[in-house]
Request: fold
Amino acid sequence: MQIEALRAVPLTTIVRLVLSWFLLAVCGASVAQAAEERGFRVESEVFANNAEEPIARSLTLFRDGIAWDFLEPAASKGGGEAACEIVLHDPARERVVLVDPARNLKTQIDSIRLERLSVSLASWARKSDDRLVRWAGGPDFGEGMTESDDRIELVGPRVRYAIEFATPPTPEAAGLYRRFADTAILLKALVRPGGLPPFPRLAINRRVAAAGGIPTEVSLEIDSRVALVTGRADSLRCVHKFHPRLLAGDLSRIEEAESRVAVATQVELAEFAAPPVAEAQ
Reply:
């Protein structure tokens, strides 16, 4: 009966049905593949005092609203397995997780802790006797800021910031990167204090994101006297290379990082940030 009924159906109808099934299968596979590959990557290198070789490298992978930041030794090239620290930026859970693969340790920092740091740091900076620190406490940087279509420059007392930026393939990428960059700057102020307050850079990040851009090069020049006091280089330059999609090995690297987060021992930030104890001779 089924065969007879099928024979009664016009051939054109059967062809349409087959094509519909085929297109549904192809579209379903494409949607699944797109969901799996959703994201982008940013490779970064930091140079000090116009040196040709970077002092640090990082690879940041963005996927499904989460950023995985792999901080690598300067001697490590090609983004291999030699990451000295992994940072998970998880805004949906309002947390940042730092992982030290070598020691198998991790520590978690809630977003509220970074917000409180921002408030207290701004209050301290604005009361400083040092003109540069007081200026860096903000909140207004409008007078020293100049903007063009692809560049923003901010000049303060004995310091100059310059950021070049480009338009990413998707407008969402600009907002995602700005949220990551802001958190990373505050995280650095918490874990490795001692530099300039982060508020000038946060203000520039806000302007770049408002322009729908993502940074391609960031430079910071500090008066040599200030650099001597802070122990920092006279000039730092960070070059960012933006890739609009994740590469073949990136998903595997994210899966490996997820495994390290799961098995690492949870410790407080003070223990995590403490330098490793030298082995007895």
User: Anything to note?
Assistant: The radius of gyration is 24 Å. Residues 13-37, 76-81, 226-231 have pLDDT under 50 and may be disordered. The CA atoms of residues 84 and 249 lie 18 Å apart.
